[in-house]
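Quick one, tokens below. Sequence please?
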């Protein structure tokens, strides 16, 4: 009887173990709250984008969304550089992932490029990107008053275009997104192209954006130091004084235009780095700029959680 009881007890324990294992196999793995969510990509227009010349990938502007594990409600649209003829990979995803480390939701913009596309298509893409983020702020648990734009090189020109050529939206538009303001709340410009004329212009960006022989009117319109007003949002600028691709005078003239219009501006000029250093993670000096930028954003309150924004 003792042996039989022991046998029954053994089978009972084995059944319990088996049930526990089965439950564990069927249970969904717990979510890692410290890991950013996998990115997903959305089209800026449901159908063909305005001015689309085809239906290939290059004809479809998109935003790729990088969500942090713990979001503070701030969002930044990231514009990679590439002379308006390409999109530099190191100025896209890694930048959004850095923004995630300070609680910011990053949106990498794939905008249309020359020579296939010229102004105003690129401007339309970035302004639509900002509107798109703001229009979906409630859905994505973002603060519509903390939407910035960040760009490198020609992407920096596009970001400077966004902070100087925005509008308040069209209240009568059929598309609800077009009713929303495209004004960024702040701009971050890293070794940006600013002027499109004179010795400090970047000829390749100008040609891809405006074509072979742009009018003086277009050059004035898109030399964005000339378009700064009192309504331009605060900006943070980074450049290297030894930049031979886009001379650092581009950042100097934009910073001076901001200062003359009493717009808050912070400018960092490093004595080395050349052009295209991205986050500067390979250099002990250049890698400081993201930290300085985060401190500037925190000072202005863009990294401060509203207390109502959730991380998912």
């Amino acid at each position: 009887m003792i042996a039989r009881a022991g046998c029954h007890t053994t089978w009972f324990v084995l059944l319990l173990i088996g049930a526990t294992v089965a439950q564990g196999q069927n249970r969904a793995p717990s979510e890692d709250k410290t890991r950013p969510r996998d990115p997903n990509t959305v089209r800026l227009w449901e159908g063909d984008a305005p001015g689309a010349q085809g239906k290939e990938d290059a004809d479809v502007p998109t935003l790729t969304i990088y969500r942090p594990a713990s979001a503070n409600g701030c969002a930044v649209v990231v514009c990679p550089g590439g002379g308006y003829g390409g999109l530099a990979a190191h100025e896209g995803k890694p930048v959004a992932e850095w923004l995630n480390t300070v609680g910011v939701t990053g949106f990498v913009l794939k905008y249309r490029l020359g020579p296939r596309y010229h102004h105003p298509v690129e401007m339309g893409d970035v302004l639509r990107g900002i509107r798109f983020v703001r229009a979906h702020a409630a859905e994505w648990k973002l603060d519509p008053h903390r939407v910035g734009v960040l760009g490198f090189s020609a992407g920096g020109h596009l970001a400077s275009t966004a902070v100087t050529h925005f509008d308040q939206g069209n209240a009568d538009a059929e598309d609800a997104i077009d009713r929303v303001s495209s004004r960024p709340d702040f701009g971050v410009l890293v070794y940006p192209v600013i002027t499109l004329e004179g010795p400090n212009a970047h000829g390749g960006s100008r040609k891809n954006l405006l074509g072979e022989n742009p009018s003086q009117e277009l050059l004035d319109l898109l030399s964005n130091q000339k378009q700064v007003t009192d309504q331009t949002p605060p900006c943070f600028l980074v450049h290297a004084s030894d930049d031979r691709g886009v001379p650092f005078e581009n950042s100097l003239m934009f910073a001076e235009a901001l200062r003359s219009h009493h717009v808050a501006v912070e400018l960092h000029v490093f004595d080395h780095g050349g052009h295209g250093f991205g986050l500067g993670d390979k250099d002990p000096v250049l890698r400081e700029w993201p930290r300085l930028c985060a401190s500037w954003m925190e000072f202005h309150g863009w990294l401060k959680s509203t207390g109502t924004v959730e991380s998912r």
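Confidence is low (pLDDT under 50) at residues 1-34, 307-312. The longest strand covers residues 105-110.
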